[in-house]
Amino acid sequence: MTDIVKTLTEFSQKFNQDLAACFSPVQGAENRVIEAMKYSVMNGGKRLRPYLLCECAALFGVDYDTSFPAAASLEMLHSYSLIHDDLPAMDNDDLRRGKPTCHKQFDEATAILAGDGLLTYAFSYLSQALIIRPEIRLTLVQLLSDAAGAFGGMVSGQTLDIYAVSSADDTENKSIIARLEEMKTGRLLRYACEAGAVLGQADLEDRKTLVSYSRKIGQAFQIADDILDRIGDQSVVGKTLHKDESQNKFTYVACYGIEKAREKAKKLTNEAIEEIEKFGAKAENLQLLAKYIIERNY
Ligand code: GRG
Predict the structure, then answer these.
(1) Ligand 1 centroid vs 228 CA: distance in angstroms?
(2) Residue 191 CA to ligand 1 centre (angstroms)
(3) What is the tens place of the pLDDT at every residue in 184-212?
(4) In the CATH scheme, what is the code of domain 2-295?
(5) Is 293 helix (H, G, I), strand (E, B) or coil?
(6) Which pTM was predicted?
């Protein structure tokens, strides 16, 4: 556990330096949006998605410099989703990663634009990454836009999160939380792993293995997030807690209760670890990361 935290911290230090370098200031008042984009993207995230992407690509011998543009664009897109999620029209949050959310630090219009700016810059940055072969780049652009979009991607998941209504039918509620997780949280985590396989030109079987690993850690990640919202320490988690409960949200905790949800996360984590055993010692960090996802306290 400590080892993977150390590894993740070391990765983040290098990744953060390279990511910050992607945001050069521009002349004029329009620099305000660049500042807001940089503020949000450099605001202390765990960098789980870029780490996953680089680590999956490394299974097939791809180096950090080649993976970086894909990892950076994924983090930009993730950061946009958090800015928009925090807006008053969505989750209406004042705190993110322990700091004022983008619309609190700047204003609502700037936060909307900063999200738009990060979403579009993600694709611009990825599509211009000459270090990645053109056909691989195109596949990544396609996969990332599908993962983020409104046809079964993150935007669909967010829509379900806002508008789905819980029913008296337990089975129906469990099916909704499963679909919600798969799209809202799962698709970007899946993309991270699949992009690693695509960069490494992995065969179909290895790619499927990584997708399956990503689905298991994705569910475990969401369960951990739901548990933290219910019983986490706000000063450590860095965002306003107990909102799921007060807003009557679909969560694993609401559908299963804390103990059952915890058991489910543990089972999924063990399955995820087994899933990638076939890669041998090269996959050790990915196995440790699966454990860290459910044991983290922020
Ligand atoms: C606005 C289209 C749109 C989508 C927003 C990501 C998202 C969808 C909402 C965030 C709400 C939430 C709690 C989602 C579940 C898990 C999640 C994505 C948590 C945040 O990711 P972390 O923990 O964040 O990796 P850091 O700050 O470490 O990058």
Answers:
(1) 13
(2) 15
(3) 999 999 999 999 999 999 999 999 999 99
(4) 1.10.600.10
(5) helix
(6) 0.94
